[in-house]
C-alpha cells in the first residue's frame, strides 16, 4: 500500500510539471473618477474576468460583482466615498485577485436653506439657527464646514451631516443678523467652494415671566421686557396671537415695536369664555420667538346685592342677585376670620346652579367674627368675588335652669354662671338681661348689660321698674357685636318703693321757691311744701300735681327775706311718702331795687343811682347793696363791682373801665345768707381817651396827621382839623375818620400849619380836642448833581434847589454803605454843595441830600446823588524785618500796609532779580495785604515793588519793598538723646529729617541742602533704578555714629519728574560714595501728597528714584548678608523682587520665623525679628520667595549675626 501511494504522488507531480504556467492579472489601475463614477483598467490574465467593487477593504460585502471587461466603469456611486476594486481571471482562485482603491470626487453642497420655526434663543449668547443643504450624494462621513458671521470675521465649524438635514448652529448672539455658507471637505483633504451665502436673523430672547391677570371682559398679559442697549439682549417688539381654539385657529394678532413695554391688555373679551394665546419677542427681521400656548378663562361677573340673612351660633345665610346662566356656572359663598389669605381656614358652600341666589354655611364657630364674600364661578371654576360683608355668629345661650331671679320694688336681679372665658368660640363678650310687662309684645323693654367676665358667678339687675308689677324676663349672651342669643327666664313681680329720692331745693326767690325730685315709681301724684318750722307744724305754702312723672314744682306765696323749710312727697293710694329737700331750708331773696339810672359817665368810671329800700320790717330790708358792670349782657365777660352795707345809700360808682366801651350794669340786694337779687340798667358807653399825637406825613402840598388811640376801640371816631391860624377861626379843612390818620391836600409848600383832633365815643359823645405840634409842609426835593473835587481823601457833593426858595436849608450825607448804616458823614448848609474830608482811599461813597422845611423836617426819602470813588494811594512798604516772612528755597511771603486804602483795593506786586526791574521774574495781583511767591530760583536775590490799583482802574506809583534772598539750605542741632526734626521749607512741601532719641551716638549739627548739581548716575548693585534728578545732601559736623533709623521726608513737584515716571514706585535712594552706586532705602511713596518718606542709617547724598521690580526671581538681591542687627546697619534688604512677591523666612527645621510681602517697587525688608516682634536668634535661615501668581519660587540662604 505504501509503495502504491508513493507511485501515485510521483505521477501527479510529473503531470503537473508537464502543464504550462498560466499568467495572472496585473494590479488594476484607476482611470477616470467623477463624483458618481469611477473607471478601472488592468492588463494580463486570461479572460473572462471577474470584477468586484466594494466600499470595504475586506470585500465583506460588495456593491457589484461579476464579469468585467477592462476598462470597466461603475456609476451611481456616492461622492467622496472610498471604493475598493479587485479583479481576477474567472479561472483563477480567489488568491488570484488583484486590487486597488480610489475615492470619488467631492460634491459641492447646494441649496443652503434655513428653518426659522426651529430657531431658539434661551440666552443672549446661546441663540440657535437651524440650516440645511443638499449633500449631492456625498459619503455620509463627509465633513461640511459651515462659515458664518454677523458682519465680522467668519467663524467656521465642521459638521458631519450625511443627509444634509437641518442642523442647529448654536452659541450665536440673539436678535442678530448672520450670514451663512457651507462647503464640503473630502476625506482626502480636498474642499469645495462655499455655497452662496444666505442671511437670516437669530430670534430675540424668549419671553420670561409671562403671566396673565384676568378680568371679566379683558385680560392683561405681562412679561419681563427684553429691552436693552445691547442688541443681543434687546428685541424689536412683541407679538401675541389670541384664539378661541386650542389649535390657535383664526387667531387675532397683536404686535408692537416698543420693546420697553411690559404688558398688553386684551379687550374686549367675552365674559366666562376660554381663550388661548401665544406670545413672543420679535427679532430684527420680524420673526417671533413664541412661547408655548397658554390658556385663560375670563371671569364671570361678581355677584351683587350681597345681603345677610339668618345668623345663628353656628351658621350664616347670605343671598345675592342671581346672574344669567350664560354669565356664570355657579356660586361660592366663603367665610373666613381674616383676609382670606393663604393657609387660613375658609368655610364655604357652593352651588352649580346659576339660578340659585343664596347659600348657608353651617360649619362656623360661635361668637366669632367672619368676613363673607360671594363669587361667581366661571367654566374653569375660577371665582370672581364681589364685595365683602362681615358678621359675628351668636354666642352660645345660657341655660334658664341655672339662672336665679330676685325681685325688688324698683329692680330685678338675675344671677347665673357665665360661659367660660376661653376659647373665644365658647365664650361670651357680655350678657343682656331684659324685662317687659307685655312679654315683649310691646311697651317698654327694660335692659341691663355687662361686658365684664367673672369666672364663677355673674349677675345683672333691671332698674327703674314700676313697683308691684309683673315682668317677663329673658337673658341673652352677647357676641362680639353685642348681639344677644336669648334664653327665656319666665316672669316675676316687683314690691313697693321707699321715700322719694333726689329731692333738691333748686331756687328760692323773694316770693317763691322751686323744688326738684326724682319722680316716684308709678306714683299717683307729687306735692311740695314750705314751712317756717323745721318739723312742719304748719304748712305756710304748697304746690301739688296729679302727674306721676313730674320732677319739679314751684311753691308760690312766700314772704321776702324770710327763712323757710322745704320737702317733697310722692302719692301712693292716698298715702304720701315725704323726703326733705337738700338743703332743707333757705332764706328768700330781699326786694329788688327800683328807679335805677346813671348819675355820671366818664372815660374809666360810671356812677349808678336808685331808690333805697324802706327798711321798716324784715320783709322790706336787706343786708347790703352790690353794683356790677360787665361787657356782656349776661355778665360772663369782664366783671367790675362796688358794694355798701349802708341800706340808706342811693348810689355806687365803678372805676377801672376801658374807654369808649359798652357796659351793662346791675344793682343787687343781699340777704343774710349772702344771696343777691339783681335789677338791671340800660347799657351805656364810656367816653373815649384823648388821641396821642404821632409822626406827620409831609409832602410839599399835603400833610398827614397820625395818632395812637391810647386804648380806644376800633369804632372810635376822630375829627381832625387844620388851619393856618392858631385860633382855628375859621377851620381851613377837617376830616371825620375811624382810623388813626387824616390827610389834607392842596396846602402851600414849606408853610406852617396848626392841627387838632377830637375823639367821639360810640354813642356820639365828644371829649375836648387835642392840639398837635405845629408843623410845616415839606420842602421840594433837591435836584441831583454830580460830585466834584474827588481825591484820595476828600470829595464834594452837589445838588440843585429843586424849586425851593433861597434860605432853604439842606442836609447832605455820605456813607460807604448803600443803606447808610455804620459811619455816616453829614452836613447842614444853605448852599448847594457840601465838602467832605478825611475819607478812605479807593473807597466807594454813596451820596444823598434832603431839603429841610421851616420846622426842621427833612424831605423823605433823601435824594440819591450817585456814587463817588476816591483815588487809591501808594501802599506803605514795611521795614525788611517785618515785610518778609515764610522764607523758602524757592519763594517767600511779603506783607505791607494799606496806607489808607480801602479793603477793595487790589495790589500788584512784582519780583525781579534786577534792582531796576528790567526783568520781571514773577508777579502777583491780589486783594490782600500779603502775597506769596513760589517757583523761584534757589539761593537768589529778588527785589520787590508794590502798586495800588483802584476800583476804577487808577494806579498808584510803585512802592519800593526792598529785597530778600531765597534759601539755599538749613541747619539744625541734633541732640543724641532727644528727638530732633530739622526741616527746610519749599513751596511744594517741607523737607524734613527726623532723628529719634538715641538714633545718633553724639550731638551734631545737620545741614540740609537740596541738590542743585548733577547727581551721580543710576548705577546700583542691588536694584534697577531710574533717576529723577531730585536729590538732597545731608552733612553733619562734628562726625557721629548713626545708631538707629533716621526718617527723611522729601517732597517733589510732579512737573519736576522726568516723563514716564511711576510715582507709586518712587523710593529714596542713598549714594554709596565708596562704591559709587545707589542703594534703595525702605520707602513709602505718598502719591496723594507728592512726597516720599524713607529710612536711612547713613547721612550722605539722597535721590528720588523709581525702583523697577523684577519680572522673575533670577535677579533677586539680598543685602547685607549676613545681617548684623546689633551693628551700625539698617535692615536686610530683599530687592529686585516682582511686585507683591511673598518672602517667608524659615529655620533649617522648617519653623516659620517671618512673613514679608514685596511692595510695588519689588522691595521687602527684614529687621531680624519674628512675626511676634521678638528678636530671632543668630544662625542661618532659609528665605523662601514665591511670586504673587504662585508660578515661580526660589530659596536663598540668609544669615543673622548678633
Tell me the helix content: under 10%
**How big is the Rg?**
62 Å
Low-confidence stretches: 1-20
Distance between the termini: 114 Å
Quantity of strands, as a count: 94
User: Total number of helical segments?
Assistant: 2
Strand order of the largest sheet: 77-80-81-87-83-84
Oligomer class: single chain
Q: What is the overall shape?
A: flat
Task: Give the overall pLDDT as a whole number.
Answer: 90
How many domains, in number, for the residues? 11
Structural class comes to mainly beta
Largest sheet: 6 strands, antiparallel
Q: Into which percentage range does the β-strand content fall? A: over 45%
Can you describe what's shown?
With 1202 residues, the protein is mainly β. It has 11 domains: 19-103, Immunoglobulin-like (Sandwich); 110-201, Immunoglobulin-like (Sandwich); 208-297, Sandwich (Immunoglobulin-like); 304-392, Immunoglobulin-like; 400-493, Immunoglobulin-like; 504-587, Immunoglobulin-like, CATH 2.60.40.10; 594-685, Immunoglobulin-like (Sandwich); 692-776, Immunoglobulins (Immunoglobulin-like, Sandwich); and more. Strands 77-80-81-87-83-84 form a 6-stranded antiparallel beta sheet, with no helix packed on it. Strands 18, 19, 21, 22 and 23 form a 5-stranded antiparallel beta sheet that branches. Strands 47, 48, 50, 51 and 52 form a 5-stranded antiparallel beta sheet that branches. Strand 45 and strand 46 (605-611) form a beta hairpin. The longest helix is centred in the first third of the chain and has 17 residues, at 2-18.
